[in-house]
Description:
mainly alpha, Growth Hormone, Chain: A, 66% helix
Amino acid sequence: MSYHPSRSPDRHHPLDTGAWQAGGAPFHVPVAAADPHPRDGLPAWKWWALLVANCSLSIMHGYDVSNVANIQASIYRAFGHMELLHWVALSYSVCNIAFIPLGRKLFKFADFKTLNLVSMLFIIAGSALAGAAPNIQSIIAGRGLMALGTSVIYQGILSFNIIFAYPHELGLVQGVIGACFAVGLILGPIIGGAFAASEHATWRWAFYLVIPLCAVSFVLQALFSPRYRVPGGPKSTWAHVREIDWLGGALHAGVCVLFAVGCGALGSAGAGAGGGGEAVTAAAVWAFFGLAAAAYAVQQASGASAERRLLAPCARLRDRAVLTTWVCTAAAAASYGVALYYTPIYFAFTRGCGPLAAAARLLPFVGAFVGAVVLAGALLPAARVYQPFFALGAALLLAGAAALQTLRPDSPEPALMAFEALVAAGVGLNWQLGVAVCTARLPRDGGADKGAEIEARLDLALLSNLAQLGGIAAALAVAGMVYDSVGARSLRQAARAGVALSAADIRELLAGVDSPLLAADGDPAVLRAAVAAVTDAVRACFAILLGAGALCFVAACAMEWEALDFKPKPQLAAAGAGGGSGSTRCAPGYAADGTRDGRSTDDDDFLLRELPARPGTGSDASAVTVGGEPSILQDLPPAHHDRV
């Protein structure tokens, strides 16, 4: 602010916001400083160490979802119980989606670090139980215990990123976490199958492997993770515990489990393995599901106060952007789960591939998926407009799903891998962008209600978690029902044509266990019938991808065309009178002199800091300076000075 002789320092203009300094000495333009970012006091090396720990946990989480895909035959040989075999895989995903909302309530008041460490102990205990299981029921229980831990830890990872990552890097960080989860999903069948086929190890090591991986992350989290609680009122921990919607949590878990059981019962009824009894059982399960769902809806609508309800965060789905991105994420997750589980089954039956060879055929899928996730996360902050990413992803998913409807037993492998990559690219573009988009739309003005802003961010993490794991769990339950029904119908038609197949043979063939009917010296007619049935069943499951792609495309078209700001909001340094003798508060990434630390400048920075002073005007002693540098504001009229 230059000194004007016509205005005495004792007579300020009504719009003056700063004090005049004697002799016209330069001073920093005062700007209101926002609340410090939670990561401001975290050293960079600790941030990277925690990212490594979170990436490791995400890989482990994805691995736990799929590590039983290629060891179910070994588990069946060890314990039998064909009727429970599908729960070895399904229990983990279903329990995850059942526990996620309760985990969100815990993050509302508990320390993040403590929750993460305790959750990892549950994962270790569940892995040990499943690995040492004396029966198939213990494996299912161990998988449920692991899901209890991962439902909290993955919520913690997403919440940690949303709170501690800067807005311009959140999309990329979430994309990397999503890519790590995908890597774990593909490593599950490969590593599990390798253990099952090893002469020196058994299928049990597919579960034991999780223990050392989790232990490494436990040490990193214990040493470097900062303690953090959501800012809130003076309530005690016990008061928060009492306010948790426990009844809603029980109903939510019941609805999730009954849905999965009902889909399995319908699949068994369609397979006709149990005669009319299977149909009665399916009808009874779906009746109980309807009652539980109705009770859950009534309880959430009127049984608890709005802020205490288990699904209170779902109220944010009223926002158009939140709803449409949530739908796209759930559709992408459903497509991912079905493609991951049923593509190796097709190759195993039609090409005679073992567990490792069948899983290796997924490499184009995984490569395209990871590349799309990382690329989308990196490009979104620069593009700013998010709708084209979702629309392109939906179009690619639709194209790949339509191409997979041409599936035949003799379809060329290169073409199938190209279709896989097309689906994967579409899924990857929609996988993790929802959190970054919705978080960027939150106000970032440094308001007084910081706790409400953090609550909003955690709600978005919950919705993303529900969309991803819920989409996978629901799609696998429905796909299992479709696979059993369509495959059994095709095999029954072959049996009526003269192929000798019993109901038990049909179930064993569809389950992929080591049936003697699939031996190399088996009946060629049976082998042809099995290959045709599995191809029909897998193609029917891939119709789920077609529906998900269509839903995703509709949601993308319904999105607003808006540009978002993913850069952190700049706050200039505010120094006291006397040339900066007071304390200084800066936004993250800004030095005390107001510079951007090498980051790209925005319009405000350009006007205030980057343009050179007008030549030949003023003197060094009377020039306005911002961050210690001359500013073009020195020659503006006094009223304009005072508005700065």
